[in-house]
Each structure stands twice: as structure tokens, then as C-alpha cells.
């Protein structure tokens, strides 16, 4: 069922009056080991409308720093960015749980800072949950948030906000020490109360073991098909960028389609083929 209707007077999409019952955090947690969980990123109202009928979770990721703003990493992303885009995605969706990434520097100092940032995000966006990166070091913070009514998604393995410490975006868990650390991190954040856990850029066997080891559902990205669900950056899987990470499957070539449409428009403007009779207004005499 569609989550939007078309206003024929403006040709714009508007949210329908709750055509679906929105999923809840407890329902998602109950999906572990059952139906796979579908998650995609969304940063705008319109994309949320299009993705919402097909997803269980829409993640307003801090990847918007690169995708929307052209930043080199997620590190410069601000609370203002996350709140503005989070609110837009909530307005465009009626079915999916909406979760918002907590940006770098908004939660690491202490649990109280994290609570204040998370509370602001939920108040300003209407989202149902926040996501934060980090393993054992963030367990206390996660427990603090969940005890105060804030649903949290954990994120371990390749953590993009720590790119400067990690030295790049290579897959994690290539040696025994790193593998053990990822598994310990996964257990720690699950036991702290996360209702979902993102496993990013880790060796397949580690992701599979982590999925078996933790009580909450796992969401893979560059991890394993045995995870309880999967997430991708929508613009990557839609083919809007020339470079496609190894773990991404391209489901379309929107960059090619946009280029072709823009080229056709430019040709018609230059040869005065557009606008035509159907696109202009004439007075009735």
C-alpha cells in the first residue's frame, strides 16, 4: 500500500492519513531469527515516501554528510543536520521505524551528554530511536539511555566516525585479536540494551558468530547474509554514484537515467522543442 497520494493540482506527493500502522521497536526486536529486517537510509521527505512501503526501518544516517553535503567523512556532521533531515524523513513515512544517527561528538563524552543529544533528536524529529557507534566503551551510555526510555541501535565493526583512528575504511576482523574485540563489543552493546545491532564491514564468519551470540537482531552491511537484516545507503544501491563499494549490489543506474534526462531536456531547450503547446498557457479569446 502506498504511503502517499498525488495532489493532482500540483503533481506533488503528500503523506496519506496513516494508511499503515507504524512498526514499533518491540516488534522489530521480536523479528530476530524470523523474518529478515529491511533497512535503507533516507535523508529527505520524498525518498522516505518512496522507500517506506518496502522497509521496516528508515535510517537517517550520518552518511548524509557525504551523500548530501559532499563532506569527506561523517565526522563534520552536526546535530542541526541530523535533526533537520530526521524530521523530513518522519514526515514522509508512516510504516517504518525511523532511527537517526547521533553525530560524532554528540554522545561520547559521558552518558548525560548522550541523553541530552538523544532527547533533542527525538523531540525535534519525531523519530523512534537513535543509533550510535562503539562497543564496550559505549555500553554504559547505552544502558543509561535505554533505562531512560530512549531506544538505541548499536554499531560495531567498521565504525565510520572513528575513521581517523582506524586509518581507513577497510574491513575489520582480519586477525584474531580484532575478531575477539568485535565479538566482545557486540555482546557488550547487546547486553547494555540495544534493540538492534549494526555489523559493518566485518569478516563474514564474525558477523555470523555475532548474530548467534547476541540477543538483539543484527543488521549487516558488508557483513553476512546470516544477519537478521540488511542495510545499505540508498544512493549506493540505486547507482547514483560512480564508485560502488564491494558490499553493495546495484539495483539500478539512477545516475545514468538522471544524466540522460538532463541531456534530453538540455537538447530540447536549445533547439526550442521545450516548452511545447502542452506546457504553455494561452489566453482564451
Concise account of the structure shown:
By secondary structure, the chain is an alpha/beta fold. Helix content is 37%, strand content 15%.
Description:
With 285 residues, this protein is α/β, with parallel strands linked by helices. The chain is built from 11 helices and 10 strands. It has helices spanning 25-29, 45-51, 64-67, 79-91, 111-125, 139-147, 163-166, 176-192, 204-213, 234-237, 254-270; strands spanning 4-7, 12-15, 37-41, 57-60, 97-101, 129-131, 152-157, 196-200, 218-221, 229-232. The chain has an 8-stranded parallel β-barrel with strand order 3-4-5-6-7-8-9-10, surrounded by 5 helices. A two-stranded antiparallel ribbon has the order 1-2. Strand 6, helix 6 (139-147) and strand 7 (152-157) form a beta-alpha-beta unit. The longest helix has 17 residues, at 176-192. The protein is globular and about 75 Å long.
